[in-house]
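F.,

This is the one I mentioned.
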């Protein structure tokens, strides 16, 4: 019961990078582990077609309101600048995980 109470009072803002197209997704949740599983199992509409996804950044906040404000900031022009400065975009990859445009040898 203690863990449940603790989990429900902790909120997260997180940033995912699509390994398919290199684009970022910003979200918020009170259960980061479960939310990441939902994203990578295709159970989140906005990221379903962009899997696999990699967690590249998260922040822990005390209230849902703080998490919402931080998420809104990260989605603002200033927030995108912060993310792009700290997390360079990844190149899109093939279904085998190879960056597009790279030549690979098959054994």
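My design for it:
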């Amino acid at each position: 019961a203690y863990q449940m109470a603790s989990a429900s009072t902790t909120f997260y803002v997180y940033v995912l990078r699509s390994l398919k197209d290199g684009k970022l997704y910003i979200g918020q949740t009170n259960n980061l582990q479960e939310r990441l599983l939902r994203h990578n199992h295709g159970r989140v509409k906005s990221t379903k077609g962009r899997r696999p996804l990699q967690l590249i950044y998260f922040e822990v906040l005390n209230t849902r309101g703080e998490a919402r404000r931080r998420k809104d900031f990260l989605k603002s022009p200033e927030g995108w600048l912060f993310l792009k400065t700290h997390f360079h975009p990844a190149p899109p990859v093939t279904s085998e995980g190879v960056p597009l445009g790279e030549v690979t040898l098959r054994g």
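Confidence is low (pLDDT under 50) at residues 1-7.

Talk soon.
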